[in-house]
């Protein structure tokens, strides 16, 4: 899957074509160069593969140290994606520094910083699923299943992917997402704490807005506008989907193109 990395300034990470040492900066919109693949490793870390076949590389050093591209994965091309509490994530290099996007337009600077502030926060916008259906798989191996109907229609879990278990993920300009069912309805999170309700709605309002955040193990959590997270309970067909106030094993999902 390919992702655009949107900075706090509304710009996107742009790797340039070329070999070792090729340039990385920022662009104001998403095109072919602004889409990178997150390549998971067995140790829970990631490599960030550009559309040119190169990998983002962090040079050692402190504030202002360099980011460019390399043709293969070594220690300097290893990253950790760390979720922040506000729906963004920070991208930490093997040197302990973080990707930093400077304000500005096309060509603005991307480098490294020693701590996380506003400029070190990014939103991941998935590109390759934008016009496709995806099944959302829980840690229990079940899939989110929306039932047909109008406002308030039921949603639960199913053991396999059929026509009802397919969603279209639509991203908003600010990096949030809506999850549209094959019935044309949208997942809706109700306000409240642990165990609060999830059902379906026929149109998009504040309760139908989510943030899809990466976890360090390659899965994703799905955060509602209320700050709660989708939670799949163990079980077979008809098992429960509700909300939880923090991310644990039951709040982790993977997206499978179907």
Structure summary:
The protein has no helices and 24 strands. It has strands at residues 2-7, 12-15, 24-27, 36-40, 46-49, 55-58, 67-70, 79-83, 89-93, 98-101, 110-113, 122-126, 133-138, 143-146, 155-158, 167-171, 177-180, 186-189, 198-201, 210-214, 220-224, 229-232, 241-244, 253-257.
Overview of the structural elements:
This protein is mainly beta and 258 residues long. The chain has two domains: 2-126, Trefoil (Acidic Fibroblast Growth Factor, subunit A) (Trefoil), CATH 2.80.10; 133-257, Trefoil (Acidic Fibroblast Growth Factor, subunit A) (Trefoil), CATH 2.80.10.50. Helix content is 0%, strand content 42%. The chain has no helices and 24 strands. It has a four-stranded antiparallel β-sheet with strand order 5-4-1-12, with no helix packed on it. The chain has a four-stranded antiparallel β-sheet with strand order 17-16-13-24, with no helix packed on it. Strands 2-3 form a two-stranded antiparallel ribbon. It is elongated, with a radius of gyration of 19 Å. The mean pLDDT is 92.
């Amino acid at each position: 899957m390919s992702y655009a990395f949107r900075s706090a300034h509304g710009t996107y990470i742009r790797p340039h074509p070329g070999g070792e040492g090729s340039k990385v900066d920022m662009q104001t919109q998403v095109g072919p160069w602004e889409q990178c693949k997150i390549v998971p490793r067995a140790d829970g870390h990631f490599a960030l593969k550009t559309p040119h076949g190169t990998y983002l590389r962090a040079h050692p050093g402190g504030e202002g140290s360099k980011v460019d591209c390399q043709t293969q994965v070594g220690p300097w091309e290893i990253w950790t994606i760390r979720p922040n509490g506000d729906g963004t994530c920070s991208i930490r290099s093997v040197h302990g520094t973080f990707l930093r996007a400077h304000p500005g337009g096309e060509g603005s600077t991307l480098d490294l910083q020693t701590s996380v502030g506003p400029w070190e926060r990014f939103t991941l916008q998935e590109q390759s699923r934008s016009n496709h259906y995806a099944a959302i798989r829980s840690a229990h191996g079940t899939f989110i299943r929306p039932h047909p109907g109008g406002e308030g229609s039921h949603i639960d879990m199913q053991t396999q992917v059929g026509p009802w278990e397919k969603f279209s993920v639509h991203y908003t300009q600010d990096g949030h997402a809506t999850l549209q069912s094959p019935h044309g309805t949208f997942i809706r999170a109700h306000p409240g704490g642990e165990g609060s309700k999830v059902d379906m709605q026929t149109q998009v309002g504040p309760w139908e807005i989510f943030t899809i955040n990466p976890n360090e193990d390659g899965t994703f959590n799905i955060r509602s506008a209320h700050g709660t997270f989708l939670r799949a309970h163990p079980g077979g067909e008809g098992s429960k989907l509700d909300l939880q106030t923090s991310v644990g094993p039951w709040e982790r999902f993977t997206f499978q193109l179907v």
